[in-house]
């Protein structure tokens, strides 16, 4: 596979991966609908930075540990499941209140970037996927590190473009979606979805 074919094949595969609904899509849609456009973009940035961190671990060989070590995989898996479960329970038990933490002074701490980042990093499937997926599109004889980051950059650009489409698509409905009854309903639905993702992750195998 030459360089052109590798880039074309990876872009097509990454586009399909990006368009497949999952946890990231649910988080971005919920944040854009119930919170605000800026918070949704922060969450999307956190998710994409997580992709670069996974890419770095693959490039420098650390990602292989997640792929081959059952202990490392399970630790990350259960941490991720616990985090998703926590988010889901908050939305189910306090629908409409949002996922915003409050500090000791009573001020809101909107760590949407961190929420997106942790949601990505605590998913060991991302590590296994990158370890098994990225090397297939690196032409023989090409520098591993440069190509790994280049492919991740393509994935991130596709992801950010799709996130932008999702966020902007919700804005015409923002006034309706921010009504208390609708907001509570969306939180309950998203919380249930997060709990399902947590269960699926906890029961998953490498």
- Round the mean pLDDT to the nearest integer and report it: 78
- Taking pLDDT < 50 over at least 5 consecutive residues as the criterion, the unreliable ranges are 99-109
List SSEs in N-to-C order: HHHHHEEHHHHH
Count of β-strands: 2
Question: What does this molecule look like?
Answer:
The protein is mainly alpha-helical and 206 residues long. The protein has one domain. The protein has 10 helices and 2 strands; from the N terminus they run H-H-H-H-H-E-E-H-H-H-H-H. A two-stranded antiparallel ribbon has the order 1-2. The protein starts with a helix and ends with a helix. The model is unreliable at 99-109 (pLDDT under 50).
Short descriptors:
206 residues; mainly alpha; two-stranded antiparallel ribbon; 10 helices; 2 strands; 77% helix; globular
Fold blueprint:
Layout: H1 3-19, H2 23-35, H3 37-59, H4 63-68, H5 70-93, E1 101-102, E2 108-109, H6 112-121, H7 124-133, H8 144-170, H9 174-177, H10 180-203
Antiparallel strand pairs: 1-2
